[in-house]
Write a structure and sequence with these properties.
The protein has about 400 residues and is of the alpha/beta class. Helix content is about 40%, strand content about 15%. α3 runs parallel beside α9.
Length: about 400
C-alpha cells in the first residue's frame, strides 16, 4: 500500500499509489496481460466469489491499473477510483450506474459538449429527462429540482466559458433532494480544487487532460467516497467494458508525479497571458478565474488554490477574426483537448462543441467568436510573443 497519506500534496503526487513490489522497483511494473493464472481451481473459485486477494482478468482488475486508481483516489481524498478508457467512458459509467427510466438530471449548461449530447440523446431514449441550467446561479438549480432528480451534474470551471459554480451551495441543494452531486474536476485537477471537501458525492476526470498532462493518453476516471458506490460503479464499468488498459494507466501514473508543479506553472503563465489579452485593443473580452474582472472572481479565490491554465476570449471581429488568429499562431498548436505541457488553441463552436444543440450553445455563452486557450508550460514570454504576432494579422 502507498505510504504517502500523511504527506503534503506535492509529495503525494510523487509517491501515491506506489506499493512494495518484487525486486524493489521504484515505479509500479506494467502488468501487460489480459488474464492471470490461478494457483488452483479452489483459488480461482474463491476469487470469482469475491474471496481472497488476487486478479482474474484485466477487464475486472489489474495491479498496474489499481496502482493508478489508488493514487488518484488519494489525491482527491476519496475512497476508491475506477479507471476508464476515456473521459466519456467515465461520464457514461456514472450516468448508467445512478440513473434509470423516470429519473431526472440537472446539468450545467457549460460542460463538455458530448456530456450534454449523451443526456439529450441516448439517455433521453431510455426515459431519463434532463434540465440544463446556468449553475453559476444557484437559484436556477433550485428551481429545476424535481422529485425524481437523481443527479446534479456540475463542471466547474465550465467548458469552455469557465463559468464557476458554488460547489458547496450546489451540494446543499442536491442533498436536500436526496440527489447526488457529481463534479467534473478536469479543468482544475485535485492540485487546485477538492470537490469532496466542498460536498461532492462523485468526482470524475478526463485523465487525457491535466492528470496525465502529456497529450499521449486517452483515459477517464471516477472517484467515489464509499465502498457501496464503488461496488455499484465497478459492476457497471466491468459490464460496459469501458476500462482503461495497463499501459495507459502506467503513463497516467507517471504524469501524476509532476501534476503539482505543472499546475503551478500553468496558472502563473495563464495569469500573465490573460492580463495581456484583456488589455489588447482587438480583444472584446477575456474570461479567466484569475482576473479581478471575472464575474465569479471571489468564488474562485475561495474554491481554488490557483486559477488554472484555461482562458476563454473573443476578438472584436467575431468568427472571422478568431479564425484568422488561430491560423496565424506558430508556437500555440491549433488542436482540441487541453491540459498538456504544450499550449493549445481551438474554436469551440466548430470543434469541441459542434455537436451541442445550437440553442443550448448560445444560452451557455458559447459564441461564434469564442476562442479557448489551454496554456502550456512553455516560456510565457514566448507564448505572448506568438499571440502578439498572430493578433497583428487580425
Amino acid at each position: 500500500m502507498s505510504k504517502s497519506k500523511n504527506l503534503d500534496f506535492d509529495s503525494q503526487c510523487v509517491h501515491s499509489g506506489i506499493g512494495d513490489y518484487e525486486f524493489g522497483p521504484v515505479v509500479p511494473p506494467i502488468y501487460q496481460t489480459s488474464t492471470f493464472k490461478f494457483e488452483s481451481v479452489r483459488q480461482g473459485a474463491a476469487l470469482f466469489n469475491g474471496e481472497g486477494k488476487g486478479y482474474i482478468y484485466t477487464r475486472l482488475s489489474n495491479p498496474t491499473i489499481e496502482a493508478m486508481e489508488n493514487a488518484i483516489a488519494q489525491l482527491e481524498g476519496g475512497h476508491k477510483a475506477l479507471g476508464c478508457a476515456s473521459g466519456m467512458a467515465a461520464v457514461t459509467t456514472v450516468f448508467t450506474s445512478l440513473l434509470k427510466s423516470g429519473h431526472h438530471v440537472v446539468c450545467s449548461k457549460s460542460v463538455y459538449g458530448p456530456t450534454t449530447t449523451i443526456l439529450s440523446t441516448i439517455f433521453k431514449k431510455f426515459g431519463v429527462t434532463s434540465t440544463f441550467v446556468n449553475s453559476s446561479n444557484l437559484e436556477e438549480i433550485k428551481k429545476s429540482m424535481q422529485e425524481n432528480t437523481k443527479i446534479v451534474y456540475i463542471e466547474s470551471p465550465g467548458n469552455p466559458t469557465l463559468d464557476l459554480t458554488d460547489l458547496s451551495g450546489a451540494a446543499q441543494i442536491a442533498h436536500k433532494h436526496n440527489a447526488f452531486l457529481v463534479v467534473d474536476n478536469t479543468f482544475m485537477s485535485p492540485a487546485l480544487q477538492k470537490p469532496f471537501e466542498l460536498g461532492a458525492d462523485v468526482i470524475l476526470h478526463s485523465m487525457t487532460k491535466y492528470l496525465n498532462g502529456h497529450a499521449d493518453v486517452v483515459a477517464g476516471i471516477v472517484i467515489v467516497k464509499d465502498e457501496e458506490n464503488y461496488l455499484l460503479f465497478r459492476k457497471t464499468l466491468n459490464q460496459l467494458g469501458g476500462v482503461i488498459d495497463p499501459f495507459n494507466s502506467f503513463l497516467v501514473h507517471r504524469g501524476l508525479k509532476t501534476l503539482a508543479i505543472r499546475m503551478e506553472r500553468h496558472s502563473k503563465s495563464a495569469i500573465k497571458i490573460a492580463e495581456y489579452l484583456e488589455n489588447h485593443s482587438k480583444v472584446s473580452w477575456v474570461r479567466f478565474p484569475g482576473l479581478k474582472s471575472f464575474p465569479n472572481y471571489e468564488l474562485g479565490q475561495k474554491q481554488h488554490k490557483a486559477p488554472g491554465g484555461m482562458i476563454a476570449f473573443e476578438l472584436k471581429g467575431g468568427y472571422n477574426a478568431g479564425e484568422k488568429l488561430m491560423n496565424s499562431v506558430n508556437l500555440c498548436a491549433l488542436a482540441v483537448s487541453l491540459g498538456g505541457v504544450e499550449t493549445l488553441i481551438q474554436h469551440p463552436v466548430s470543434m469541441t462543441h459542434a455537436c451541442m444543440d445550437k440553442k443550448l450553445r448560445e444560452e451557455s455563452g458559447i459564441t461564434d467568436g469564442l476562442v479557448r486557450l489551454s496554456v502550456g508550460i512553455e516560456n510565457v514570454d514566448d507564448l505572448i510573443d506568438d499571440l502578439k504576432q498572430a493578433l497583428e494579422n487580425v
